Amino acid sequence: MPTSSVPSDALVFFGATGDLAYKQIFPALQQMVLHGELNVPVIGVAKAGWTLEQLQQRARASVTEHGGLNDAAFTKLLSVLQYIDGDYQDPKTFEQLRIRLGNCSCPTHYLAIPPSLFGEVVEALARSGCAKNARVVVEKPFGRDLASAKELNAILSAVFPESSIFRIDHFLGKEAVENVLFFRFANTFLEPIWDRRYIHSVQITMAENFGVQGRGKFYDEVGAIRDVVQNHLLQVVGFLAMAPPTSLYPDALRDEQAKVFRTIVPLTPDTAVLGQFAGYRNEPGVAPDSRAETYAAVRLELDSWRWSGVPFLIRAGKCLPLKATEVMVRLRESPLWRVPFGANYVCIRQDPDFHVKMGIRVKRPGFDLQPMPSELSVMKLNIDGAVSPYERLLTDAMRGDGMLFVREDAVEAAWSVVDGVTDRSLPLHEYQPGTWGPPEAEALAADIGGWHNPE
From the CB of residue 294, how many other CB atoms can be counted at a distance below 10 Å? Predict the structure, then answer.
């Protein structure tokens, strides 16, 4: 069984000719070579009728369009790049892979393929001997609901130990998301006030000012809950609500995340509002009678000592007024000078840039002791040149470092939270592009001062 101290000696990525490989994986591989993190065989697998030369051309176009070509690093990448063209249902494909792996003792298999193929590829890896002492990296979405997630976990667990399974969520590889952890736990002033005694409410908004961008068929099958709420945004809730981990050992962090997810009261139709922007059904690939939600707003309750009575609100949507991912933590009001609600807050912007702001009150100039609002810009971080999420996560997986990957129990606990609002028969409210979603969502935040709209 590979341990965190044993680096992988080969990288196999299934789906080598796909869209994800073109937009994300090849640029990440070039950067890994550039940073000295990739000097082992890289074996692409796909069924496209291609040759190695065609895959090399595809890789060159990929890195040129997405990040820029580095001649030296790309030349080295080509020197280790191999290709197997074959059907995932054909045992001969995996026999070829076993031969290509040769004496490799700890390969990493990255499944950049549709979730419907995960099970048969994993089982084929086992039958061919390619899974021995190997790691597997699985792309999201990890299941469509709790039942299918459990099925996938059972298939994976029958072949790989949990320590060798890396469920990838590229959101966790972003510098801005990791900075939420650092802001919370690397600053001692914050922890004493980070609970129900001082925090009034928490809001997380993930707004996109565009539609499905040609991904209509995929999005119509998934919708906002499965696409970003069950994974990306619940991970942010975990980072915001977790207790301090006992150490920086990967499972110490993941233990605390899982504990948070288990305290969240499962959502019901009364605690969620789903919407669809006007014109969505005209998008290519979208069913004319589609019930897919392009907007979701939910209100979470955490049944724990730390967070009892503190609402956590999440909303995510397409065709909203702007593109931003932002956390607004509102503090309780001071007993002196009954200032308007929301005067004290911590605002963490994660996208498109990262910064932290704090709302405070200072004395208004003059004879009277009257407060006035002010804002501290704690930090604005330029993350240009930062390691990309896929470079970070693939590097970590090949090192065996699971800290930024989602564990089996956390996946199932997260699905338990949202399972009650994934039914396509639930009410679906239309909203106009360029607005903040359907008006019905306002009721979820009415008792906490309304939604905070990023600017």
Answer: 29
Q: What is the pLDDT of residue 1?
A: 40
pTM (two decimals): 0.90
Q: Hey, which residues does 83 pair with through a beta bridge? A: 44
Q: Which CATH superfamily is domain 10-139 in?
A: NAD(P)-binding Rossmann-like Domain (3.40.50.720)
Fold: same for 10-139 and 172-387+406-448: no
Homologous superfamily in CATH for domain 172-387+406-448: Dihydrodipicolinate Reductase; domain 2 (3.30.360.10)
Distances from the Cα of 82 to the Cαs of 64, 79, 390, in angstroms?
20, 8, 20
CA distances from 421 to 208, 241, 299, 428 (A): 21, 22, 12, 11
Hey, what amino acid is at 105?
S
Integer Cα distance of 451 and 317 in angstroms:
14
> CB within 8 A of 259, min separation 6: which ones?
242, 243
Asked if residues 190 and 348 have their Cβ atoms less than 8 Å apart, the reply is: no
**pLDDT tens profile 61-109:** 999 999 899 999 999 999 999 999 999 999 999 999 999 999 999 999 9
Backbone φ and ψ of 393, nearest 5°: -75, -40
The residue whose two tokens read 């931003």 is 324
Smallest Cα–Cα separation from 244: which of 198, 307, 202, 181? 181
Catalytic residues: 232
Given a cut of 50, whether residue 312 has pLDDT beyond it is yes
